Amino acid sequence: MNLMITFFPTRQIFIEIAGLLISWYGVLYLLGFASVWFLCPRLQKQRGLALTADEWLVIILAAMAGVLIGGRLGYVLLYEPSYYLNYPLEIVKLWHGGMASHGGFIGVGAALWLVSRRLRIDPWKLFDVVVVPAALALAGGRLGNFINGELYGTVTSVPWGVVMPGVAGLRHPVQLYAVLKNIIVAVVCLWYLYRIQPVRPGRVLALFLLLYSTLRLITGFFREPDGLAVSFANLTLAQGQLLTIPLLGLGLYLWSRHSGSSASFRHRRSLPPPEGGPMTN
User: Fold this and answer.
1) How much of the chain is in helix, strand and coil states, percent to nearest 5?
2) What is the pTM of this model?
């Protein structure tokens, strides 16, 4: 029996194995979670954590569930509510596309908060560690948008303009702008995590939110609007930009709330052990 393997049978599909289709999104999501698995155990000592491989597996599985559930429900509720109200079974068909990064943020945040309570660790320390590989995973997702020809940019005459399938004219490669944006966020957060010590837990998360939301607002002006748009004088904000403003506000609040330094936060778990015995990993 011959096993037929075809690479890149379509723009959206990475490989076909005996009729099984593996999309670029699937590969990039897998690489994103692999980056979390590889980097988090190595970064955790910067926040005084000493989580085991099994504990990180629980965290990564929770984050995966948060991304998929939050991202999908965010898209359903924010972008296409009427369609999914008429076709509710389509909600679970993730392979048909449709994920919202803002919903993914909420889903991951809730999942990590809950799992941190279960593992009895300071959630702010966990957030500080996770945001670095999370930014890299976001970069991979935007690369998937570019490969699939989605979320394309506005018409442009710049020399690096690209042709996107199904639309006329040269377009800003806004997906690649977003890839660069997320890599910048990851690098700055990594530098801050290592170089600015001691610092209150939660400060790196705040920096992530401030950088991501600011750069997302900027790159949004080069992206073809999707969903609703609101105009203020001569300024028009697309729905994705409007949804980014609360992230900016949250980043400012957390930056203020977690300001200052505190060496006592380092090299220990913050939640008290249960009565009657010491805390264990």
Assistant:
1) 60, 10, 30
2) 0.84
